Structure formats: C-alpha cells, structure tokens
Amino acid sequence: MEEKKNNAVEKVENAEKSVDIVKDNKQQKQTRKKLLEQKRKERLAKKQERKALKEQVKAEREKIRAEKRIELARIKAKKKSEKEKAKASKIRERNRKQALLKEKRAERKAEKQRQLYELATIRAQEKKALKEKRANQRQKNKEEGRSYGGWLAAVISLGIVSLVLASALTFTFLMPSASDGMLETNYKRSFTNVVEQVDNIDLNLSKIIATKDKGAMQVYLTDTAVNSELAENDLSSLPLHDENKFYTTKLVNQIGDFSKYLNKKLANGNSLTKEDYKGIVQLYEANKMLKESLRRMMDEMGNNFNFSSLEKQDKRNVVLAGFNELQNLSVDLPELIYDGPFSDGQSAREVKGLKGNQITSEEAKAVFNKIFANKNFEKVETLGESNAKINCYNVQGCVGEETIYAEISKQGGKLIMFDVMGSCEEINFSFEFAVEKAEEFLKNLGIEGMKAVWTNLANNVYTINFAYTENNVIMYADLIKVRVCAETCEVIGLEATEYFTNHVERKVATPLLSKGEAKSKLNVNIEVKSSRLAVVPVGNSNERLCYEFMGELDGATFYVYIDATNGKQVEMFKVVEGTEGTLLM
Q1: Cross-strand bridge partners of residue 418
Q2: Which residues fall within 8 angstroms of residue 523, CB to CB, at 6 or more apart?
Q3: Contact, 480 vs 447, CB < 8 A?
C-alpha cells in the first residue's frame, strides 16, 4: 500500500517537472525570438544608415561636380573674353600707330604740295608779266603769230599733278587698312555671337520651364549661366557706349546670376519655389523680346553694315536704334530679390554714406573745379544727370587734348567716380608709388581710414582696391577703386559707389571662434601665408565677421573666408593670371 502511495507521489512530481520543462522551453523560445527580432532591427537600422550616408556622399559629389562645371565654364568664358580683348587691343594699337604714320606722311605730302603751289604761283606771276609784255608787242608783231598756249598747258599740267596728289592722299585716308578690316570682322563676330548666345539662353530657359527633373535642370541652369557670360563678354566687345547697352547687359547678367543662384539652391538639396519658377518665366519672356530685337537688327542691317559706325552715335544707325529701343526692356524686367550681384535688391539698397543737403549743377561744377584745381580747364560743363544707385550730376572738363569725366553726387556733393580719357604707354613707377599717390588722392577728398587690399596691373594702369579699416578689421563692403597710370603715376580714375552706399560706423562683434579654430576648417593641404579679420558682405544687406586666410595649394593662391561665429565657409576666391592682369575668380 505504501509502495503504491509512493508511486503516485512520484508520478505527480514527474508531471510537475514536465510542466516546468515545457514552461522553460517556451520561455527560451520567446527569448531567442526576441533576440532574433532585435538583431534584425539592428541590421535594418545599419542598412538604412549606410544608405543615408551613401546618399549624402552622392549629393556632396554631385554638388562638387556642379561647382566644378560652373567654375570650368566661367574660366573658359573668361579666357575667351581675355583673348578677344587682347586681340582687339592689339588691333587698336596697330591702327593708332598706322594712323600716326599716315598723318606724318600726309603732312610731308601736304608740305610738298604747298612748295609746288608756291613754285607754281611764282611761275604764274612770271608768265603773267611775260604775257603783259607780249600783249604790248602783239600789235607790232602780229606777223609772228606767237601765243601763250604753251604756258597755259604748263599751268594746266601743274594743276593736274596737284589734283592727282590730293586725290591720292584722300584715297589713302578713305581706304580701310587690313587692321581696320580685322577689327570690323571682330565686331561682326561679337554681334553674331551675342545673337547665338541669346538664342541658346532662350532654348535653355524653355527647357528649365518644361522639366521637373532636378538633375536635368541643373545642367540647363549651368548652360544658361555660361551662355549669359559669353553674351556679356561679346556685348562688351562691341563699340557701343554704356548708356546704349545698359539694360541689355543688365538682363543678360541677371539671367546668368539668377541661374547660378538656382543651381546652387538645387545643389544644396533644396527645391525651387513658385516664386523661383515665376522669375524664370519672367526672364524667359524678357529674353524672348531681346532675341526678337536682335534678329530684327540683323535683318535690317544687311551684309555690308559697318559696326565701327556705332561709335559716331548716329541715331539713324539701325543697330544703335535697335539697342536704344531695348532700353524699354527695363520696364518689363522682373524684380528679382536674391543673394546675387545683379539682384534688383542691390540697386534698391539705402545709400548710407552720403550726408548733407542737395546741391545744384553749378555747385557740382565748383566741386569738380576744386578737386581738379591743378588742371586749369579751358571748359567745364554739366552733361545731364545719372540716376543709378546714387543720383549724380555728370560733369566734364577739357584742357588741351585731355578730357576728364566725373559724377558728383546730388546729396553732399561727393566725387562718386571719374575717368581720364587716354592711355598709358609704359611702366615708369612701381605699385608702391602708385599706392602712395592713390592714398594721397583719397585723403585730399576727405576719405580717411582706407587700406589697399588688392592691386592689379593691366595695360600699364594700376587698379588699387581700397577698403575701409576699423580696429584692424577690413570692411569689404566699403570699397573704393582707384586707377593710377604707371607711366606718369597720376590718378586717372576712381569708383566709389560701393563706399558711399555702405559706409557707416559699425560695431564689430567679438569672434566666437579663435583664429586657430577657424583655420582648422580649411583644407589641410592649403599652406596659409596670412590671415586677418574682415567684415564680408553677404546677400543684399547682410554682413558677416570672417577670418580671411590667404594660402597656396598646388602652386595656386586662394583666399578663403571662414565665418568667425559658426566656422562655415562664406566665400572662396582663386587668384588667376590673365591678359587683363591678376584676377580673383
């Protein structure tokens, strides 16, 4: 009995153990299932992370490729422009020398003709005296039948010789030389190129409007930017005054600048807004009007049009009239506000650096005479007004063959710009002397605190960029460009629009980053040569305190600007040697 009881207890215990084993197995299965699920989620997360990283790297590479395409296209366009300008400059110089040679030859021929004329006059007087003597004797000597036909023939022959000489001289002056023909060919090529590039802009803008693919849009925007730069270069090569092509150039520049802005926006992973598309459509319509006008000019001017005639400012000239009509495009241009040098927001900026009352045109002439008191002008006159960023009186002074054109601000009577007509033939002074002369000129104008930040030499002229400096910090928005002739070390030009537009007393913030921290943001391969603090203009009205680093990489010089607050790169320039001197691109 006891044995049966023990068996029953044992069975119960075995049953309980079986239940515990089943429970343990079930828990182990659940634990393994959870571990497997966790590992699967971790693998999925790592996969997504790798995918995101791959997409980021791809976007960065595409951004770099887009920037390289734009830079290469810009450099290519710049080189082409420099080559064309150098060629045109050589042709003009050759023409000038040939004109001087022709003038000297003409003077020698004229002197010889004068001597022949004096000799003919003396002979004529002698013949006249002889004729009178013979007339007195004619009645007595009728039987001899003498005449004066031989003398008259000699006089007529001398007249014919003189006429031939004069005709040959006139023919020499009127016949175009080979260089004149080459220059005319360059003008014609430039105009044809403008028409071609405007056609290409029209095509690319239409594609931008029609596509939704961001990659394709970036390609079209890059092409448009290049087309606009080439068109602007060819426009500048035409013998047109600035006032005749101002709005045409502005439209072309604005199209290119807006294209670069949109391309950069897409490269940074952003999408275009409705306002962006609206701006594209407006520029497309404005460019369409330009395209039609240029085509109409081509039809009207025919095959024998002389582009050199544009310099004469004849309003009946079909091309000049066409460009003057294009000034009306300014009414239809869209007001595009964006971070770019040709944004309409730029021209709408408040002029901060001009104080004082409004002056009259007579007072502007008095300011002009005071600034250039050493010139002793024979004539000083006002040539109307200019109403760009700063409203000015246009004043011109002439002394001998020298002409000085200047713009004097209506408010405060400040010299905004001036230019001396003429050219410099050789280099007699170093840039140190040129900088001293320019600094002296600025001080005489009452402009203090300026520092030379960039000097360029081209065509025997130093162009010196001065920026306002406060507590050893460069204010790049307050910029003045001064031109000094390397032959005479005389100041022959000034452009101070940016200075008077932006100059105010500033309170410069303390940088949050040290120079070393900012330097760590540079490419490690750049060998830094110098550094300093600078306030850099960004967009329409903003400024940033930056560290300016000048360094070298692979034999090239770079200027890099690092935000002193957040360490981000604000701008980078590369120094490029071209036919027009040393450029920042």
Answers
A1: 406, 494
A2: 553
A3: yes
Q: What angle do CA 59, 262, 216 make, to 5 degrees?
A: 60
Is the CB of residue 110 less than 8 Å from the CB of residue 162? no
Q: Is the pLDDT of residue 147 over 50?
A: no
Structure tokens of 43?
């693998």
Assign 120 to helix, strand or coil.
helix
CA distances from 165 to 99, 156, 173 (A): 19, 14, 13
- Map tokens 């045409």 to a residue: 248
Q: Tell me the C-alpha distance between 269 and 37, whole Å.
A: 35
Helices (H), 361-414: 361-371
**Using CA atoms, how far apart are residues 38 and 45, in angstroms rounded to an integer?**
11
Indicate the Cα dihedral angle 126, 128, 131, 132, nearest 10°: -110
What pairing do the DSSP bridges indicate for beta strands 402-409 and 415-420? antiparallel
52-61, 80-89, 412-421, 532-541: least confidently modelled range? 80-89
Helices (H) and strands (E) in the chain, counts: 13, 13
CA distance 469 to 479: 10
What is the CATH code of the structural domain delimited by 515-584? 3.10.450
Q: Tokens 């921290």 map to which residue?
A: 517
3-state helix, strand, coil split of the chain in percent (to 5) is: 60, 20, 20
Contact yes or no for 310/323 (Cβ under 8 A): no
In angstroms, the Cα distances linking 566 to 320, 512, 514, 572 are 52, 8, 11, 16
What string of DSSP letters covers 306-321?
-GGGGGGT-TT-HHHH
**CB neighbours of residue 167 within 10 Å:** 10
Q: Which sign does the torsion angle of CA 575, 578, 581, 584 carry?
A: negative
Per the DSSP assignment, residues forming a β-bridge with 464 are 455, 482
What does the alpha-carbon distance between residue 168 and residue 305 come to, in Å, rounded to a whole number?
26
- Residue that has been written with the tokens 């701008």 in this structure: 571
Can you give the C-alpha Rg of the chain in angstroms? 39
- pLDDT tens, position by position, 1-28: 666 666 776 777 777 677 667 777 778 8
In the chain, where the domains are located:
177-347, 361-502, 515-584
Q: Is-contact 365 346, C-beta < 8 A?
A: no
Enter the tokens of residue 37: 């699920």
The pair phi, psi for residue 383, each rounded to 5°, is -115, 40
Annotate 443-495 with DSSP letters as a single string.
HHTT--SEEEEEEEEETTEEEEEEEEEETTEEEEEEEEEEEEETTT--EEEEE
With left for phi above 0 and alpha for psi between -120 and 50, is residue 257 left, alpha or beta? alpha
Whether the predicted pLDDT of 291 surpasses 80: yes
Task: Specify the DSSP class assigned to residue 238.
Answer: S
- Which residue matches tokens 């109409």? 296
pLDDT in tens, 431-446: 899 999 999 999 999 9
State which amino acid sits at residue 486.
Answer: A
Q: Report the amino acid identity of residue 376.
A: N
Q: How many CB atoms lie within 10 A of CB 150?
A: 10
Q: CB of 504 within 8 A of CB of 432?
A: no
pLDDT tens by residue, 449-492: 999 988 888 778 898 999 999 989 999 889 999 999 999 999 99
